[in-house]
Structures are given as structure tokens and as C-alpha cells.
Specification:
Blueprint lengths: L13 H6 L3 E10 L4 E17 L2 E19 L13 E5 L3 E2 L1 E3 L2 E6 L7 E9 L5 E11 L1
Antiparallel strand pairs: 1-2, 1-9, 2-3, 3-7, 4-5, 4-8, 6-7, 8-9
């Protein structure tokens, strides 16, 4: 059985998060100056990973939370979903960089205090592998 048991996993949607009793709260886009993508859904959920016990795959919650952004489509042709981590990335200064799986972008929330608002930077990765801020946006709890 080939199962990723080390990295935190994320739900693919709010409905899946609710179905698995991981959902905490929904977030919405509050502000973005130069939109490069559309956010279809944003939600906070309990962080979780897979464990294998006696050959059976089980979902196990960790002690953290995570913010998930389900991106719908890209507006700016300079940014593409499949170039995340190569040409661009997103960061929340308090919690670090987002990871991506498909169209879902996730950042682990360090303090176990649920933030009402999160500021997120969009950064371009330059040829010398440094980053420069392109834009920022804010999501807030609904």
C-alpha cells in the first residue's frame, strides 16, 4: 500500500472538509489589487494526514489548523497553476509559504488561534531564485 503518511493532507473542497468533520470556518476574499486568479472557495480546517494501521488507511487529525484556497481560474497569463513553486509562490508572513496540490493551496496555521483575517503575498521567483513581491490579498472569516 503506497500512502503518504508524513505530510499533512488537505480536503479538495469545503463540502469534502465538512463531510469528513474537518471543517472549521469559511473565508472570503476581502481585497486584492491586481487579481491573477479567482478564488472559488477558502476555508479553515483541522490539519490531517493518513496513517496505516494493520493495513488499513485511516485519516488522523494533527494538532494544527490549515487554510485552504481552491483556485478556480487564472486571469494573468504570467501566472499558471503548474508553475507554482517554479515561477511564483504565496506566503503569509506569520505562517510561511503555501503548498499546492492540484488547484488547492494550503498553509499550516502555527498558532492555534484562528485568525479572522490573513494577509497573503504573491511573489514572483526570479532567475537567481530570489523572490520579489508582485501583489498581496486578504481573506477574512465569513
Amino acid at each position: 500500500m503506497d500512502v503518504n503518511t508524513s505530510d499533512p493532507q488537505q480536503s479538495a473542497s469545503i463540502s469534502q472538509s465538512k463531510k469528513n468533520n474537518l471543517f472549521i470556518s469559511e473565508y472570503e476574499l476581502e481585497r486584492i489589487d491586481n487579481p491573477i486568479f479567482k478564488i472559488k472557495e477558502a476555508w479553515m480546517e483541522k490539519s490531517w494526514k493518513w496513517e496505516v494501521n494493520y493495513g488499513i488507511k485511516e485519516r488522523m487529525e494533527t494538532s494544527r489548523y490549515q487554510l485552504n484556497l481552491l483556485l478556480d481560474s487564472f486571469i494573468d497569463s504570467n501566472f499558471k497553476n503548474n508553475e507554482y513553486g517554479i515561477k511564483w509562490e504565496m506566503e503569509n508572513k506569520l505562517n510561511g509559504y503555501f503548498r499546492s496540490t492540484g488547484n488547492v493551496y494550503t498553509v499550516s496555521i502555527k498558532p492555534l488561534i484562528l485568525p479572522d483575517i490573513l494577509n497573503i503575498s504573491i511573489e514572483q521567483i526570479t532567475e537567481d531564485l530570489t523572490t520579489k513581491k508582485f501583489d498581496s490579498f486578504t481573506v477574512k472569516k465569513k
